Amino acid sequence: MSAIPSQFDNVTAIAKANVYFDGKVVSHSILFADGSKKTLGLIYPGGYHFGTDKAERMEIVAGSCEVKLDGGDATASYSAGQFFDVPAKSGFDISVTSGICEYICSFID
Prior knowledge:
- The chain is mostly beta strands.
- The protein is built from no helices and eleven strands.
- The chain has strands spanning about 10-15, 20, 25-30, 35-45, 45-50, 55-60, 65-70, 75-80, 85, 90-95, 100-109.
């Protein structure tokens, strides 16, 4: 497994935040020269469900979370340095019990 990046160079950052669940999940989009996009975000304590259009990779930068993918029975724990993949046209439940979970979401073609 490769290391989760600590910074991105030569990108365009979108100042307007993506705000979900009354501000308990917030992210900012960054755009790369090749046309790809990632979001960098924070998840505050609580439980949330997200749907996906494209496949996604969620890399945990700091904190921890519990995740259950749509259609699955198992819940898995993830912490800093780990990631999980979400198939296109599906979704996942994510919960944070304490602290803040920081993440990088990459959209996979």
